[in-house]
Amino acid sequence: MSVKLKERAAGKTVNTSGPSSKANKETIRPCAMRDIPVVILAGGKGTRLRPFTACLPKPLVPIGDKPILEVVLRQLANHGFKNVTLSLGHMSELIQAYLGTTSWSDIILDISTVDEEAPSGTAGSLARVPGLDGTFLVMNGDVLTNLDYAALVQSHQASGALLTIAAHNKELRIDLGVLEADATGRLTGYIEKPVQNYKVSMGVYVYNSKVLKFIEKDKYLDFPTLVQEMIGRGEHVNIYKNDAYWLDIGRPEDYAQAQDIFEREPEIFGIGERVI
């Protein structure tokens, strides 16, 4: 299935929220990304969002007045990407129906879909996507962020890595007093409501097509397993540190927060007044 969305006016400027431009000396124009394929992983069941996903696939769950999938597609168009493939599975017919009936006036995208007969994992599904040569972008279909995708691609290409993972600094607070004790039970420390920081995957990745040699067609493979295998073989896997806003819509608490933020400040995600 292919859907083409027409652009009303060419030569628009691009809203590049996210990492500081100081960290990316070269400015990337939208046309630089038009040859970079994008794969959106949109086949999951969205079990964490039930009952919302009982009758809707997760990519069609609304954020404000738009499905999260539409938000992501509009952002990709803003950054100059053109060729997008949706890897579908659960309730794929609803997503295909949505793509076939919706129309947006100001963007241009070539959208195709690949429908999995059986789940093959967040990495294994790439084996069925045609045309993945050189550099390509992969992302989960439930990510709400203002990440500068073009800058992410540029960072990947400059690093020489086979795979780059966009990384978010996640603060985890334990709302309890944490006790530290030795083997005899003698208390050695007491930490009230400690905060820990981790770099977590944002569900947005840039691949070199050489990674596909690790992925067998029709064999289940999740992304963490792929990464661990690559590291074990000494392959170069990078992370892309950034200060972009990020929410995982698959988590109920993030979904609720996204609704509130999207209602108050949709411009954070580049689709406010300057709707494309």
In short:
With 276 residues, the chain is of the alpha/beta class. It is 21% helix and 28% strand.
Account of the protein in words:
- This protein has an 8-stranded mixed sheet with strand order 1-6-5-2-7-12-9-13. The chain has a two-stranded antiparallel sheet with strand order 3-4.
- It has 6 helices and 14 strands.
- Helices cover 21% and strands 28% of the residues.
- The longest helix has 13 residues, at 252-264.
- The protein has a single domain (2-168, 199-269), classed as Spore Coat Polysaccharide Biosynthesis Protein SpsA, Chain A, CATH 3.90.550.
Mind sketching the topology for me?
Blueprint: E1 2-4, E2 38-42, E3 62-63, E4 66-67, H1 68-78, E5 83-88, H2 92-101, E6 110-115, H3 121-124, E7 135-140, E8 143-145, H4 149-159, E9 163-173, E10 177-181, E11 187-192, E12 195-208, H5 223-232, E13 237-241, E14 246-248, H6 252-264
Parallel strand pairs: 2-5, 2-7, 5-6, 9-13
Antiparallel strand pairs: 1-6, 3-4, 7-12, 8-14, 9-12, 10-11
Query: Can you tell me the CATH topology?
Result: Spore Coat Polysaccharide Biosynthesis Protein SpsA, Chain A
Q: For the record, give the distance between the C-alpha atoms at the N and C termini, rounded to a whole number.
A: 23 Å
CATH H level: which superfamily? Spore Coat Polysaccharide Biosynthesis Protein SpsA, Chain A
Helix and strand run: EEEEHEHEHEEHEEEEHEEH
> Which descriptor suits the 3D outline?
globular
Radius of gyration: 20 Å
Number of strands: 14
